[in-house]
UniProtKB/TrEMBL annotation:
Protein name, entry field: SDR family oxidoreductase
Family label: Belongs to the short-chain dehydrogenases/reductases (SDR) family.
PANTHER family: 3-OXOACYL-[ACYL-CARRIER-PROTEIN] REDUCTASE, CHLOROPLASTIC, SHORT-CHAIN DEHYDROGENASES/REDUCTASES FAMILY MEMBER
Record-linked InterPro entries: NAD(P)-bd_dom_sf, SDR_fam
CDD domains: SDR_c
């Protein structure tokens, strides 16, 4: 039976791979994000994928999105986010106002976006459905405000799992390590740093967006109905990347 899937941040990388994975299974997929161009690229050639523009940190944008979403959602994938430090000129170390701004940017992008989106669609989630958040290895290993936001996401998800559990809805976090073929590093990843990230894994290779998509699909499948409130680390056995 076809399901309805909502994938936030579905324009590139992991979000795109997740959307295509579910669409290939015959599900109806809504992909959202702030940039219409990448969303259209995700939907191109995939009749089951519908793009909708939304800023998931903005309550008004989310409210407008609700009017265009289906009445029932089987799976919510909170993928929107990323390390906003890559978008700033500096770290604000000598300026408290700039430091606060940059810190809040990561919290908004990675924690608030997931919380707001889940709250917005919570009543539409179908019994037996699933919520899957994309976390990060940074939650355990540290990466400034980005790591703090992802750690907060994992903690918040524990309470969410208790809230949704009585309705038969699971809530889990998938925490990737280094994933190649994404825009995460904004083209700032040096060859040396990439080699060190790969070398830190037990399997000796970078992860791929499809690795994460497969794990998300498992968490949304009947095989994972007794798995909730958890963080699944999908990092090739990486122990440290420092």
């Amino acid at each position: 039976m076809s399901r309805t899937i909502l994938v936030t941040g579905g324009g590139t990388g992991i979000g795109r791979a997740v959307a295509h994975h579910f669409a290939a299974q015959g599900d109806e997929v809504v992909v959202t994000g702030r940039r219409p161009g990448p969303l259209q690229e995700t939907a191109g050639g995939h009749p089951g994928v519908r793009p909708l523009v939304c800023d998931h940190t903005d309550p008004e944008s989310l409210t407008a999105l609700l009017a265009r979403l289906p009445a029932h959602i089987d799976v919510l994938v909170n993928n929107a986010g990323g390390n906003t430090d890559f978008d700033t000129a500096g770290d604000g170390a000598g300026d408290l106002a700039a430091y606060a701004r940059d810190f809040r940017a990561n919290l908004d992008a990675n924690l608030l976006s997931a919380a707001l989106t889940t709250k917005a669609v919570q009543d539409r989630l179908a019994p037996g459905g699933a919520v899957v958040h994309i976390g990060s290895i940074a939650a355990d290993q540290g990466a400034g405000s980005y790591g703090a936001a992802k750690a907060g996401l994992a903690s918040w998800n524990v309470e969410l799992s208790r809230t949704l559990g009585p309705r038969g809805i699971t809530a889990n976090v998938v925490a990737p390590g280094y994933i190649a073929d994404t825009a995460f590093f904004r083209d700032r990843l040096t060859a040396e740093r990439r080699e060190s990230l790969v070398a830190a894994s037990a399997v000796g290779r970078a992860g791929s967006p499809d690795d994460i998509a497969g794990t998300v699909a498992f968490l949304a499948s009947p095989a994972a109905r007794h798995l909730t409130g958890q963080v699944l680390n999908v990092n090739g056995g990486t122990r440290t990347t420092r």
